[in-house]
Design a protein that fits this description.
CATH architecture of the largest domain: 3-Layer(bba) Sandwich
CATH superfamily of the largest domain: FAD/NAD(P)-binding domain
Helix content: 25-40%
Number of strands: 26
Structural class: alpha/beta
CATH class of the largest domain: Alpha Beta
Radius of gyration: 23 Å
Largest sheet: 9 strands, mixed
Length: 496
């Protein structure tokens, strides 16, 4: 017997789980299948930025992560002599979103929290121990064959979303290839538990740009620490994974006895972006759509942004408020952002991964020419989306209060209209499923929105919390409607 759903999510890592929560919060029916029957117990992703924490708050995972994370006090790049080449430090404890600028976190904690949130959503069904076998197009959607403990079963879905990682079955089955950005380096990743109940040995993330062997040293969740060692040209994975080899690599930096090894694995750090993120009803998100070196810690951050961007577009199409072309705006908006971040990560990686001694000396001389205080910068701020939003628009701050609640909590996963005065247009927006609020109801947060609005009567914020535009209320809502209908093209001009 064939089962029907609106969205079939393949892969229940953090990206697939966040997507499921967003869809479930909007009442979309979804089935999420995952090959493994349990959350993978070892940490993999390491870093969440403040914007991602804000999006994970909307998905129900941020609070658990906050209790199992370590904000960085600085991120430094040092040469073989220990001299500072460049560094980044946060401006203040919290970012404008109300979350720490950086959170080095424990991935299993996040996954358990997201799955717990999924379990509360009646329109979403989680199927563990099930794997996608194949699918075929049928009508506007797909019919998937899924391997289950009871045998192969069919699931009919309007959309199939591959959140199934770098070796994505969905991507390969759709025949989608990668654009290779030319970075491919082998690294040994070591996750450790600190001995003797020690919580942390540092709050500084370090890149040792030593041509003899580039090394990464990162505080993780309390009680954990990560090392990454670049493999040398003559080394094979089996040469570097023994306890003895790992201890010898740690010894120049710390006493190896401080660390109990939790996980050891050799990875190739790639810079790959899928050429197509959507083929009709088949869509990619997270590592299935893009992979980047870890030097900015933006892999999972980018996947979470994918999920938030995609979810409300799918819901709008399913409910008839948007044309199918709106889903083409997903890649149009997200790929430039991912490509920019990946390019930055590759540039940092090339600084770190230099193994030629002469080239490293030239690099050091050039970077050390600046005074040391000029080599430290504020934490890297990512640009906002460049399509379908106010030009350069980033996320709005969530700390405004509405009826003693955070604005994010009051609005849920819905578009937000902030107005100077209520009107028939704003009331109609609220009646149709949006969240409308006047400046007078925002308390201390009103000043932030007044500044962002300039002299405009209204500001519209998308469900993924990017600013759509500012203007006269009725005209702004007309631009939003045109954006939905036209796949983002018309409104990008009107809202600007």
């Amino acid at each position: 017997m064939r089962e029907e759903t609106e969205v079939l999510i393949v892969g229940l890592g953090p990206v697939g789980a966040a997507l499921g929560v967003y869809l479930g919060r909007m009442g979309v029916s979804a089935i999420a299948i995952e090959r493994d029957s349990e959350v993978y117990p070892m940490p993999r992703a390491a870093h969440l930025d403040h914007e991602t924490m804000r999006l994970l708050h909307l998905a129900g995972g941020a609070e658990a992560v906050a209790g199992a994370s370590q904000p960085l006090s600085a991120y430094e790049f040092r040469n073989a002599a220990g001299e500072l080449l460049m560094g980044f430090s946060p401006k203040g404890e919290l970012a404008p979103t109300g979350w720490p600028w950086t959170s080095m976190f424990h991935q299993p904690t996040l996954e358990h929290a997201l799955r717990a949130r999924l379990a509360t959503l009646p329109s979403v069904s989680v199927r563990l121990g099930q794997a996608l076998k194949t699918w075929r197009a049928e009508g506007e959607g797909v019919v998937a064959e899924v391997e289950t403990p009871e045998g192969v079963k069919e699931i009919s879905a309007r959309f199939l979303v591959g959140c199934d990682g770098g070796n994505s079955t969905v991507r390969r089955g759709a025949g989608i290839t990668f654009d290779d950005m030319g970075f491919d380096e082998p690294w040994l990743v070591i996750d450790t538990v600190l001995a003797g109940g020690v919580t942390r040995i540092s709050t500084v993330g370090l890149q040792y740009c030593d041509p003899a062997r580039p090394v990464t040293s990162m505080p993780m969740a309390p009680g954990r620490h990560r090392f990454e060692f670049m493999l040398l040209p003559h080394e094979r994975p089996e040469d570097v994974v023994s306890d003895e080899a790992i201890a010898a690599m740690i010894a120049p930096y710390h006493d190896p006895a401080q660390f109990g090894i939790e996980r050891r694995a050799v990875y190739r750090f790639h810079a790959l972006i899928a050429k197509e993120w959507r083929k009709g009803p088949v869509i990619l998100a997270g590592d299935a759509a893009h992979q980047m070196p870890p030097f900015l810690g933006q892999g999972l951050c980018s996947g979470t942004r994918d999920a938030a961007n995609l979810a409300w577009k799918i819901e709008a199409v399913l409910r008839g408020r948007a044309g199918d072309a709106l889903l083409d705006a997903y890649q149009a908006e997200r790929e430039p952002h991912v490509r920019m971040i990946t390019g930055m990560a590759v540039a940092l990686g090339r600084i770190v991964c230099t193994q030629d001694v002469e080239a490293a000396c030239a690099r050091d001389k050039d970077m050390l020419a600046a005074p040391e205080d000029k080599r430290m910068n504020e934490m890297i701020a990512l640009e906002g989306l460049k399509s379908g939003v106010l030009p350069g628009g980033g996320m709005v701050a969530p700390d405004a209060r509405f009826m003693r609640a955070r604005l994010d909590d009051a609005a849920g996963f819905a578009p937000i209209l902030v107005v100077r005065e209520e009107s028939e247009a704003s009331r109609g927006f609220a009646a149709s499923g949006g969240f409308a609020v006047s400046l007078s109801a925002l308390g201390s947060g009103a000043a932030f929105f007044k500044e962002m609005m300039g002299g405009a009567p209204a500001l519209l914020v998308r469900p993924d919390r990017y600013v759509f535009g500012a203007g006269e209320t009725a005209a702004l809502l007309a631009a939003w409607k045109a954006y939905l209908a036209g796949g983002g093209v018309a409104a990008n001009i009107a809202a600007a």
